[in-house]
Amino acid sequence: IERKKKIKRDSNTMFATDKGNWSKEAALFLIQEYRKFEEKVKIGSMKNNVLWGKIAPSMQDNSFNGDQVSERWKIHNKLQKSQDR
Predict the structure, then answer these.
(1) What domain of life does the UniProt record list for this protein's source (predicted)?
(2) Which of 15, 40, 50, 57 is a Cys-bridge partner for 26, taking CB atoms 3.0 to 4.6 Å apart?
(3) How far apart are CA 74 and CA 69, in angstroms?
């Protein structure tokens, strides 16, 4: 049984590093948020632009906009695919 960790969002948590890169916590939070809508995306009842529109507000609280969230997800998927080889 796979256990999913819940990442608590705290207003004191800085998701971006000093250089503006994504912290591990930010990446994990993005994955957690994506999983809330994952099934709808997979079956096609939710389009990607709607997905990022739903996730972006929670990430904007931590200085990331919808485009940044979408691009980070693409990078995450590329890394996962390269590790699966």
Answers:
(1) Eukaryota
(2) 15
(3) 9
- What is the pTM (predicted TM-score) of this model? 0.61
Q: What is the DSSP string of 42-69?
A: HHTSS-HHHHHHHHHHHHHTTT--HHHH
The Cα–Cα gap between 66 and 56 comes to: 5
The structure tokens 């948590």 sit at 13
Our CA angle for 3, 67, 84, nearest 5°, is: 40
Q: Give residue 10's pLDDT.
A: 46
**DSSP secondary structure letter of residue 24:** H
